[in-house]
Amino acid sequence: MDYDYLFAIGQDSHRFRSYQENEFAPEGVQKLGGVMIQGAPLLEANSDGDVLLHALTNAISGITGVNILGAKADEMCLSQGITDSAEYLKEALNHLHGSEIIHVSFSVECKTPKLASYIYDIRLGVSVLLGIPVESVALTATSGEGLSAYGRGEGIMAICAITVRKAREV
Ligand SMILES: [Zn+2]
Fold this sequence. Notes:
170 residues, alpha+beta, CATH 3.30.1330.50, four-stranded mixed β-sheet, two-stranded antiparallel ribbon, 26% helix
């Protein structure tokens, strides 16, 4: 059987919240790919600041042509109080109209938090959100070697590439 495949990328970044010198910086719990990362600095955002789900949502918009992050997510966040990035992802998925995501590849750059021990959990969490096997979600992380703002520990940047099998026109 013949299928058409599409490929798209999405990107997102957030800076860590800054605190005054004498201000107590709470031990944060930052959501990444829908997974709670303990002891991670919180990211600045109106939403939960989940850079991985935002990059994925943007990649899906790269297929559908319907942008969710920006005006639509701001409206969901500021008017409806929806801060869970999984809801923005669901909104993007609604526009796939039967086309299926068959592979997801994340590339993350940050000095902190250290993601190595969370990689499987994040892959699993994203696979559950998408309803695809964990083997179809990959994630690599680089410390950035101090070369960029992310590598210097000022925030996190994520790129997401997805492969989609197009719905067959009937
Ligand atoms: Zn974002």
